């Protein structure tokens, strides 16, 4: 939203942000996000290391491969069965437990267009869909990071119960900011421990898998789907060589 919260969620230049990180050879993206809770057991102040998302946005650029002259060439059909990096999530969960924080080890985030909050009918519908928490910024960031071959994980902090809960004050900006101010140190403490720990770990295989997955998801009109298994393996090895040397496609 910008330093002074002057940019609507729809107008954040997610692609520029991810591209800038890619240009700096960033390997991991750790984010924090305020969210509303759609579950009784996820109380305001709790943390959720989200593992899935539902996209309810309508006005955002969700790919780095959109066919424009200034974009990457091809169409990227990136797999999204596991949108968040499992290995990085495990690090965050482990640290949260060691710090004694109330942290839920998984959850489905539904991202709405905003900037308005949900109606009660929408909030109840999202619950029926299986969403656990709700925000306005996870999508398309998580998708773009996946396309860029980065390990992406998110620490979500519940600030309210959205507006589905009877006899509970509905979400408001004041309520969100109050809860954030009271609990921001929780996410900070996780990050201060996680960053050096991640930096000391071996990530070669994880990052190669992410980048090869992206490369193999790009359609440029060539006959990639018809390649033999043996040739696929040879190409994968060449991709890894390019990744390591900084030459070729990546």
From TrEMBL:
<dbReference type="InterPro" id="IPR000845">
    <property type="entry name" value="Nucleoside_phosphorylase_d"/>
</dbReference>
<protein>
    <recommendedName>
        <fullName>Nucleoside phosphorylase domain-containing protein</fullName>
    </recommendedName>
</protein>
<dbReference type="Pfam" id="PF01048">
    <property type="entry name" value="PNP_UDP_1"/>
</dbReference>
<feature type="domain" description="Nucleoside phosphorylase">
    <location>
        <begin position="7"/>
        <end position="195"/>
    </location>
</feature>
<dbReference type="GO" id="GO:0017061">
    <property type="term" value="F:S-methyl-5-thioadenosine phosphorylase activity"/>
</dbReference>
<dbReference type="GO" id="GO:0005829">
    <property type="term" value="C:cytosol"/>
</dbReference>
<keyword id="KW-0328">Glycosyltransferase</keyword>
<dbReference type="GO" id="GO:0019509">
    <property type="term" value="P:L-methionine salvage from methylthioadenosine"/>
</dbReference>
<dbReference type="InterPro" id="IPR010044">
    <property type="entry name" value="MTAP"/>
</dbReference>
<keyword id="KW-0660">Purine salvage</keyword>
<keyword id="KW-0808">Transferase</keyword>
<dbReference type="GO" id="GO:0006166">
    <property type="term" value="P:purine ribonucleoside salvage"/>
</dbReference>
<dbReference type="InterPro" id="IPR035994">
    <property type="entry name" value="Nucleoside_phosphorylase_sf"/>
</dbReference>
């Amino acid at each position: 939203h910008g330093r002074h919260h002057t940019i609507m969620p729809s107008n954040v230049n997610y692609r520029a942000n991810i591209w800038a990180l890619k240009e700096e050879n960033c390997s991991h993206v750790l984010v924090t996000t305020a969210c509303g809770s759609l579950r009784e057991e996820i109380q305001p102040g709790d943390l959720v290391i989200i593992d899935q998302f539902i996209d309810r946005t309508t006005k955002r650029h969700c790919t780095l491969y959109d066919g424009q002259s200034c974009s990457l060439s091809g169409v990227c059909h990136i797999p999204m069965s596991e949108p968040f990096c499992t290995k990085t999530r495990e690090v965050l969960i482990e640290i949260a437990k060691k710090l004694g924080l109330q942290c839920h080890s998984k959850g489905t985030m539904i991202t709405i267009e905003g900037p308005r909050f949900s109606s009660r009918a929408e909030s109840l519908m999202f619950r029926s869909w299986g969403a656990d928490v709700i925000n306005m910024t996870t999508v398309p960031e998580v998708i773009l990071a996946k396309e860029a071959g980065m390990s992406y994980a998110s620490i979500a902090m519940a600030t309210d119960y959205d507006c589905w809960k009877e006899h509970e004050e509905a979400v408001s900006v004041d309520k969100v900011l109050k809860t954030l101010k009271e609990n921001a140190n929780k996410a900070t403490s996780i990050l201060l421990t996680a960053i050096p720990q991640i930096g000391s770990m071996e990530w070669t295989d994880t990052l190669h898998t992410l980048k090869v997955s992206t490369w193999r998801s790009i359609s440029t009109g060539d006959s990639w789907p018809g390649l033999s298994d043996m040739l696929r393996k040879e190409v994968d090895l060449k991709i890894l060589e390019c990744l390591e040397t900084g030459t070729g496609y990546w």
